[in-house]
Amino acid sequence: MNFNKPLYYLILIPISLLPFFMLHGISRILYFTIYYLIGYRKKVVRENIYNSFPQKNELERILLAKKFYKQLCDVILESIKIFTISKKHLSKHINCINPEVINKYYEQGKNVIIAVGHCNSWELMLTGIDSFIKHKAVVIYQPLSNQYLDKKLIEARSKQGTVMLPAKNVKSFYNMPSEHLHATVFAIDQAPSDPTKCYWMKFLNQDTPVLFGTERYAKEYDLPVLYARLNKLKRGYYTLEFVEVVVNAAATEYGEITERVTQLLEKDILKYPEFWLWSHKRWKHKRTTTTS
């Protein structure tokens, strides 16, 4: 749907104002619609699950797909909530259990990098992350093709304190002086636009091109790297957990940072596979060489 101003105020905002229990009620209807009636990206989901879990039988893969679609519908509705949710209300649904892991770098006067994946309600996490840390949270993102919705998404996150930075401006951002120590947030599980400018590794049983930005900037500016894990407690409630990955990035070997953060994500996916974004065309690129 091509959202414009009337649709935003007549559809998105009224839905966003609903309490979580009502959003989850709508989610059940949405699940029936997109899974049984529309069949949204069923082929992509089934292929991704089949290739990632060849040891599972057909019934197990179908059950996993259904669990994923139910989770996806919750995530869609919870993501709409970010347009109107207050910082106080958001803090009731996401709690950071170990902020000291990242805040110690603030005390040391160091900028940091945070690697994240598309697990659980990532939009809620990225919107509220600035509230949990002492650094200024800067989320690297690819602008949406719908300029109006893109603008509203930036406004929603900005009012919570998070800064949105287009991926094309990352280099200039790092080279500019900053008044605040910052924590730049990189998504590590998106399909790269150019598979020749990435790092290839085994991920979920498949040759996978992985975005190299996290490692590139960590090594170039010698920044500590952390992994942010979003744990689901129950429907609509999550805990944010930071995992220390690398302290001295400049001393790491080529590919080490990329492999370590991706392996952490893979571990989370294997533990709770239904919480990851299986509808993403993650493996649309195929490896053409034997080198990383």
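the 2nd protein, sequnce then structure:
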Amino acid sequence: MTERDTPWPPGTPCWVDLMTTDLEAAKQFYAPLFGWHLTEGVPEAGGYVLAEIGGRPVAGLGAIQEGLEHPPVWTTYLATDDAAATAEQITAAGGQVVMPAMDVMGLGVMAVAQDPTGGTFGIWQSKQHHGIGLANDAGSLTWNELMTRDYAAAKDFYGAVFGYTYTEIGGEGFDYSTIELGGNTVGGLGVLAAQVPAQVPPHWRVYFAVDDADATVAAVTGSGGSVPRPAQDMPFGRHADVADPQGAMFSIIKPASPG
């Protein structure tokens, strides 16, 4: 379990949120699945909802703005001390700023960007809201990874903008690295498998920890979701890729016991 009440170090995945076509349905799906308490959204934020566990924020849920043609998606936000400056670095490194830095009601400053390989992510400069207050516990975020088709270009981009270094842990034709910041592992970067359809873009994948992967998968399907990759054992735990009823993809994992 990781608890935090201060800003996350720059470059660290510090927040995740869902943008969906049916916010009410999403609330009904995720709250019982992960044991989230959902705050009432404020009109000024378009009804954006904070999900909490034990009074600590763990994720956000919001509605896709009317008129925008965009599939439901989970977004990973990377921490920054200066959103405007980071946006400039993103552009200089070959990325694209999709949504310029903007103040969010005094809570922080956000922007949305796309790396040169096509992976979309957010950046967050905290003010009143520091991001995730609880991680690595059941129902909360436990891992973020970029899956891309241009491994070398992605490594170069994130290294230039956020100072990432990498440790190769892949093998047998599968390229994968852990991402390090200041000696701490903060995420992963891998290559999309050849069998992944071309229409699936590079993306930051979000993992939530659970106490029982198989029971969670059953709960997903029982609530109208789908399971693109059934639960299976891997060195780091029992993992599955799932999707909510509106089609937003995410992963769940029962972490392996230490040792």
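The first strand starts at residue 2 and ends at 3. Residues 23-34 form the longest helix (12 residues).
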